[in-house]
Amino acid sequence: MTARRLPSGGVIDRTQPLTFRFDGRVMCGLKGDTIASALLANGVRIVGRSFKYHRPRGVWGSWVDDPNAIMTIRLGDRELPNVPAATTLLENGMEIRAVNAWPSAKHDVKGGLDLLHRWLGAGFYYKMFMSPDWHLFEPSIRKMAGLGPVNTAVYDDPSDQVNAACDVLVVGGGPAGLLAARLAAERGEDVWLVEDHATLGGTSAQVTAIDGQDPEAWVTAQEAAILAAGGRILRQTTAYGIYDHQMVGLLEKFDFAAAPRRWRLRAGRIVLASGALDRPITFANNDLPGVMSLQGAADFAARYGVLVDRKVVVAARGAPAEHAIALIEQAGARLTRVAPDAPLKAFGYKGAQGIAIGGLRRFADTVLVSGGLTPLVHLWRHAGGKLDWCARRQAFLPGAMPIQMQAIGAANGTYSLHDALEEARAAGTNTPVTRVDTAEEMTPLWPKPNSKGRQWVDFQHDVTLKDVSLAAQENYVSVEHLKRYTTLGMAADQGKTANMAGLAAMAAIQDRPIPEVGTTTFRPPFVPIPIESFHGHYSKQLWHPLKRLPLETAHRALDAALCEYGGWLRPGWYGNGAAQTHIQAEAKQARETVAIFDGSSLGKIAVMGPDAAAFVNFVYYNTITTLQPGRIRYGFMLTEGGIVKDDGVIARLGPEHFLISCSSSHTDSVRLHLEAWRQDGNDPDRIFIHDETQAWATVTVTGPKARGVVETLGLPLDLGREAFPHMSLQTTSWKGQPMRLARVSFTGDLSFEMSVPARHAEALWTSLHDATKAAGGGLLGIEAMSILRAEKGYIMIGKDTDGETMPHDLGFTVPRNKKTAAFIGDRSLHSPVANAADRKQLVGLAVGGDDVIPTGAHVVLTGTRQSQGYVTSSYFSPSLGKPIALAIVAGGTNKMGQDMETWHKDARTSVTICPPCVFDPEGERLNA
Amino acid sequence: MQRFPCPFCGPRPETEFHFMGEAGKIRPKTTQAISDAEWATYLHSQRNEKGTVREVWMHLTCGEMFIMIRDSVTMEVLGTETLRKDAS
Amino acid sequence: MGAYSAWSVFKEGLRDGRGWRQAWRTPTPKKHYDVVIIGGGGHGLATAYYLTKNHGITNVAVIEKGWLGGGNTGRNTTVIRSNYFYPESAALYDLSVQLYEGLSKDLNYNVMFSQRGNLVLAYSEHEMEMAARQYNAMRLNGIDAELLGPNEVRKMAPILDFSDTARYPIHGGVNQPRAGTGRHDAVAWGFARAADQAGVDIIQNCEVQGFVMEGGRCVGVETSKGEIGAGVVGAAVAGHSSVIADLAGYDLPITSYCLQAFVSEPLKPILDTVVISPAFGTYVSQSDKGGLVIGGGLDRVPSYAQRGNMPVQEAVLGGLVEMMPALAKVKLLRHWGGIVDVTPDSSPIIGPSGVDGIYLNCGWGTGGFKAIPAGGYLLAHCLATGEHHEISKPFNRSRFETGQLVDESAASGIPH
Question: Does A243 sit within 8 Å of B36, measured CB to CB?
């Protein structure tokens, strides 16, 4: 092998040498090199090992079609596995190692696996390892498989995700793409051109003139014209997929291992000028290093100034191949040609030394092959375009297309530059593209079943012609079965080189036409792209961002333990000591004196309008029409399935004005629910729904001394029991600001809930906190509040209920039996399952001893493992001096006084079913 | 990312929309006797057509609901209609 | 060569595999079968297999419009588990896990059921309480389970983000050790080969276009290859259940959605279990080949389009990076979508269709692969006996009328 750098030509910068190491050897490349071109220029022949047999692999192609050169690369503090060498630009200082090979690609200890190949054919693993047990074999198979290892370092460089739109997207910056983009831009269309190489021009470097001009000058002129007309050009950018509604995914690459940028580009129309790939020829030992794509070699010469060898044997067919051959000859290679359909056999150890035709041996370290071109139609298929089989070109070409998309140039099967530019003119001016039919008819050149030798179809995955034959013999003849059974086309290149040969082989074996065999599904992404591309900047605290309280600063100043509750960041408790100590103390203090609690996250949804009363009566389980202005009622909203969706209080502020208070975490879903019913089945002009949650902050004062604390605000109203009874509401003002003052209670103690515009929250909080402290009271976090409400048997939706709970399971039976008006979920409350006796119902559990039963324990019949329900809330009650628990238990209402057991991690605890409310069951404190 | 046409806000990305259900489902009058089967049909039955579908969607950002007609295979949006009965 | 074994692989290796027989035949359809099964995916093929094995019924055809195993069987994330809450679900899915445990030997085809565990993460004290509820339910249902704290989770999956900056701090999780993954294609192929050997005709590239009715009873199907008479018909056509229902004249409470999945480039072993994160909406495992197999939630828009769309890709893959930031730069090789049947309670429908002579197996939603052996076993029972197996009774379609849903998400405390 005597690959060498040509003295001139190519897009590389000869003034900027780059140093790198490959498998430990120091090498030199040039700026503009890909890793593959640099390796070739350094005479590297074996660049890796195949996946299954660990056969030596050389560079096959010069771009996305190369399945062989896959590296683990370290640069600075970054290391990435499975980097495709042919599409990655070389950078100074790269440490490059071949994946799947140890200690080096050249000397791989697992190379001996190839000796076992006759037993490791397609699907061998489906036929063995069953006895005695797959699990005995699997660990070593897993270790053998996989390519590179993941470096577990975490890099903090989020990937940009950008939305954009354009009139025309041109995919591919070769001559056809450039011209189409220029013409479209000059017509005034907003044009984007994307090119996955770092440089524009595509195959222009391989021709002597374009439109009579010097190719380089022509490319520069097109670029300038596109930019001058307002077009945009993105290099190193791959259109990786097309999605619904003309949405194209673009991936823009930057330096090695840097996060890429992903564009979501909505393109009015798309011009596909993605070119075509070379096809291997299937012959014996065609996988040897040194057997290369002819087009790849031409590209290496034209683009990177690398001549793959001075002496080469060529087996090729078709006009594009002739063009490439001429180019390589001009670059200084001596060529020997062999008939591509002759019975060829490459020979050599760890690399080709020549090719034999029958007994005749042609010696050359490099064998260039081209079995014709395969248009790159991946994006065409993503967009739902059809493919038509073209016998003349022996290729699948773009056919009917449902969206605004045209294919031109080699992607359209038009390989001549002249014709490609004609198509570009049509596409550029948004007129129909008529494919120019080439004069030359391609004689089929496909794998020959039953021919001798090991003939590779998929180089990376070691799928040979024999494997395809075996699949056919075993009747895995569908093209998808072929792929899945042999793993053909499932490697990192997703079959860009392998698929055509594979399906042609299957067609030949079965004597069916190729189009009848068909292709496997083309799935995005077109090339492997980093998962981080889909992630973006919304990370960590910005991922599902928390909702914040207006009083967060005040809470922090009071050493609140801020925790996430239903998407809100709220104080769990206050203080830096042991959590349980604080929680118990807060609960005790609230019962004994007074405490203040931030209730701002509770939903506040206003319903107004002439039909508001009828509407809320329909959306509530409870009858609401009888609620008087100024009064509050506790109730449920149900789903149409009769399941409790949310609970809370509803206040009537006026005849046509209601205020719904819903659970903090349910506000959005309740608003959606209300809107849905407002607009579907009601006159939306007579009902208005307004979510005021964020507008108001709410501070609750609760406890025996609550009235005294609220009195310190000096509100102009009578807070007395008769004038302002439990479950009533008054609107007033405080310091010139509107205030809603409600007597509702989540604790079972005398409580006042005060809401003011959110910007005045801190003033209210400070006043009330000072007064509370003066009264001997303190703060109350969510955790202590949960104890208080559990003592009262007050439920929390989603904790003490589940997705089967109906209101009568919670003891609220009256509307189910008495409400005459229709309401959401009404009919479901009378279904057979709603009437069942063994429904899970809310109960309390009386627990002996001091140990709190774990929440999540199940309730079982004593001595059995039959689950009857589960513990939903369980705490130590400081006021009662004992553990308490709520549970939902099958038929629980009728089991009062019954002894049962809880079961948690094999441990049983005796409990007695009791009513849910164990604190002040008469409600004297509540109504105080 | 699909683009749906809100009749009020114009074309907007699909993430702003919420699928509410198939169009044309009438809630039975629950103040009258309804069999379990009739109620189950109302609750659960789906046409689930492969091809042209009529569905109710909400544009979450403006809160308005509307009927969208689209193709459930090609995902092409074929049109929208208002839910308002009195709309001309 | 018939039976597969290490010995047969060795012997065939010596003679270039010339003795390997067809895994299944390509038969011409007969005029009439005792049982015709529509759908040559895992469930349909398993049904045929269990008809022959459990009921001695071998005059059976499986009719597949494309290639066998080409529907959701061939495009899922291969998770097999029975970590269910309700006894009805646990019985169903654990029957499946038990059948999977013996399946490779039973079918003489290595389906590579790899019992590497299935870990569901919990991210708060409240979620730990729910995890305990789930764990205890599983144990009481007779399913293996482990309730894990953060250190035990770290041991199982050290690649997870345990840093202070993680959006959701890991509090623990529930693991089912017997759960794991299987080789999805092999399940279809193994059942097909075994059913074929028992005499079942598997007819590929044959589309059902109508039903032959006589006196209100279905007595056959009209297909693209002609009319085929049937003593009884079973339909296991996930993704297209509503389309077949429409042809046959019964209603289904099913909505079709695209479910996407993703696979990365092959990596050396980095993750030794299946990890599910409800908070991030992503789950992931690593295949024997080395690829990360990634899944998440349904697309937002009901559809029959098997493509998938960006919003869910961003949610699922973004979620993966949040869960396991070290995998951010791993490359995605391929993503795809399949159509799943979603029922109101996300549980399957098994049993009579409502049209005499047609029985159903559908509505598996996102989890049909893990249920393949059980789905086939139970539908075979219905077809052979005309009656439910005890395990499939709760999954009769009449539950939507009685309200007796089997709604697993209900138990998680998420109200609908």
Answer: no
